Structures are given as structure tokens and as C-alpha cells.
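Lecture notes, unit on binding sites. The following record was shown on slide 14. It pairs a sequence with adenosine-5'-diphosphate.
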Amino acid sequence: MNLTDPTLFCDRAWLGGEWIAASGAAIDVTDPADGRVIARVPSLDGGAIERAIAAADAARADWAARPAKERGALLRKWHDLILANADDLARILTAEQGKPLAEAKGEIVANAAYLEWFAEEAKRVYGEVIPAPAADRRVIVLKQPVGVCAAITPWNFPNGMITRKAGPALAAGCPIIVKPASQTPLSALALAVLADRAGIPGGVFQVVTGKASMIGGIFCKSPKLAKISFTGSTEVGRWLIRESAEGIKKLSLELGGNAPFLVFEDADLDAAVEGAMIAKFRNSGQTCVCANRIYVHESIAEEFARRLGRAADALRVGRGDQPGTEQGPLIDMAAVEKIEAHLQDALDRGARLVAGGGRHALGGTWFQPTVLSGVSPDALLAREETFAPLAAIIPFRSEAEAIDMANASEFGLAAYFYSRDLARVFRVAERLESGMVGINTGLIANEAAPFGGVKQSGLGREGSRHGIEEYVEMKYLCMAGL
Ligand code: ADP
């Protein structure tokens, strides 16, 4: 790999201020574009994970005691180093994940912004003085860091999901141990190189690699660990709740979605097509906020399908590291099999193919950007997240029917809709059962906004001033006899 700073390509875990090379058990990291092994990182044993927790615990008091301004300054420095090295970080990300370089850099820059945001918020974790119900008393509320935290992060945003979690944790005064997805540990380790360079103490930010269920299990059971922040599947989220029940661990969970995307008859159709392209095909459809069910008013459904099909056909599919690529490969063959199953199921129920429809001529895990129209509301993809480049258009007759179909899901992460009628905009936005609603846009995440879901899409929020609250506890001081 051609990097300006080759030291960012790191295949060792970062534990208590030491780099741990693979000895014995290791995990192969492959390039999803060709299956080539690009690195081997350690598969740490349980003892190493316990050492990481002990190192974080040892670093906890000093980190919490530092002035917020000082923690913020270190976060800001880390942020600046990430931006200065964004091109190299993007090359590492694309090599292990497959997304186009421009998208990789976009992920890195947009999510480094969470470090900048929380570097600033660190100074604003205000307590309260509350008027007491008795004259001789005062009610005072302190906000204190929750303690040692762990982050378990997914492969679809190997860089951004780490800065989103480490930013608020470190700002609040909590050390954090990151367990990246085994498919994509290199972005996490590159971030560790830069955190170290920024001066963040070794016990305060650590990256451990290895078997997910073993590491997750230790995190859940460790009495020294106060909180786990997880982004991934609903199934693993449930497992973490069960495993950590004994110790009443705090959890922030950003789980699966099955985002509805509604296009009303009064929408600006070109804008809706553009928004649907971003909401559906970004990262080859592999994001938890990707539009999975596109409900379009029956009077415009065919025209919308035609335009979306044309835009999907025009997407340049190829290797992420080649200039001009707009869609890279899928992460693995299981992802290809899932889109094939969802596609076949929709076709069996009478859907019509408008664009794509199968594996791409490039082979491997490449799939054609695919558009279906006339999809049945009962199709499998209306219930399950496809996580792949399949845009399914389901026609609707009335606003009420569209909202009912959109809400008929156990998930509630993101929803999108297009309308130019102000009354409808408020009506629909208020009725949609989701944590986030994109109105006349297909792109909603940013550091200033609370990102998260309702229903089985998770617990807690990332970003905004609310994001840091996930990492602090309230302590009520009852001052009596005054
Ligand atoms: P995805 O379908 O996106 O891979 P997963 O929930 O399987 O979603 O993975 C998200 C993250 O959770 C990854 O870091 C993965 O290694 C980790 N993970 C998977 N299974 C477990 C588990 N049993 N305990 C803890 N972490 C897990």
C-alpha cells in the first residue's frame, strides 16, 4: 500500500501503552476487492483483555481528574492529526473495507468532527443547583465520568464509529477500550497510532483485537468496566444485554435499521431520486441508515422507478482504490447471498426489475446496483435489513397507508420522506416511529445532531450535547443543616 506515512499501517494491538504483535493466534485481514490477505493482527487471549481493562482502570482517576480543557485539547490534537493524515487513513480503510476512496475520506473527516465537537463539549458538562423543598437544605448535582468504557464497532464504518464513541467518552473523563470488527481492525489501529502521537495516555485509549464473543463476554462480565457502547446487529445487541445483566452494565446500542423512504405525490422528484441514491447506494447499501423500503405514491411510482433505475445504471462499479469508483464490492459472500435471497423473494412476489439484478461482471463480491418496482409490501426486504445495493419501490395509495407501512417494523432508526407540503411535513415527521427523520434529504448524520434509534434499533444517542450524557453519571449532594 502506498502511504505517505507507512507507520500508520499497523498490525499490532495497542494495549496499556504497548504495541502487541501477533504471536501464535492471529486474524487475517483481507481486501474484499480480491480476497488478498493484507495483514495479520493478533487474536488476543482473555488474559490480554483483562490486562487492557486493568490498564484502563489504572488510568481512570488521573484522566478524570484532568481539567476538561486539557482533555479537550488532547482530543483536538488527535482530530487535527486525523485530518492531516486523512488520505493515508482512507487508503487503509478502502483496503480492508472496499468502499471508494472518496467515501472513505468522507467517513474519516465527517466523524473526526465528533472529536472536535466533544473536545468543545468537555468544558460544558454542567452540574446543577436545584431549589430545595426545605429552607435548611441545598440540592446540588454533580456530573461525573461513568468509569472505564468499552466500544465494540462494526466493519461498515471502521474509522468513524470509533471517533464517535471515543470522542464523548474521553471528553467526559472515561478511558475507552475499542474492539474493532475483525474484518477491519487496521483503521482502528491507525487511529491508535495517532492517538498516541497526540499524547493521549496509553491506558486511556486502547485497541484490542481478537475473537468478538470472547472479548465481548469479558467486557460484559468485568466488574471494572462500567459501560459498553456497541454498534452492530440487533442480535448481538440482545446478546450484550443478556450477558451484562448480572453486573447491570450501562449500554449504548446502535443496532439494526430498516429505514423507510417515502416519496409523496407533491415531492420534487429529481431531489427525491438524488436523496434515494445517497440513502440507498452509499457504501454499497451497507449502512444501518440505508433506505431499505422505498414507498412511492402510485401516481409517480413508475416515473420515480425509471429515474432511479437510470441513476443506478450510471453508478461506476469497481475497486474502491480506483479513481472515479462510486460503488465498491460487498464485504463478503454472505452479503451477496443475502441480497440474492431478498431479490428473488421480491421477484417471486411479482416485482419488476428496472436496473441491475445480479452479480457484477467483476466477479467476487461485486453486485450490480439494482432497482425493483412494484414490490409487494409483504416482501422479505420489508421486514429484514438487506444491507446491500437493492432499491425496492413499493407503491402506496394514501398518506395514512404509507405511514402504516413505514411503521410496521420492529426497527426505528432512520426514516426519510420527500414532500413540499408544510402541513404534511409536520404530520408525517411526528407520526413516523424512528429516532431520526430525513425530510427532503437522504443524508442525516452529523456531529451536532443526536444519532440513534427507537424500538429495537437501540438505546442512547451519539453526537450533539446529548451524546456526552451517555458517559456521565449524576451524583446528587444533599446539603443539610444549613
Ligand atoms: P455485522 O452484521 O455488522 O457484522 P455484528 O453485530 O455481527 O454486525 O458485528 C458488529 C461488531 O460486533 C463487530 O465488532 C463484531 O466483531 C462484534 N461481535 C459479533 N459478535 C459478537 C459477540 N457475540 N459479542 C461481542 N461482540 C460481537
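Take-home: Residues 101-121 form the longest helix (21 residues).
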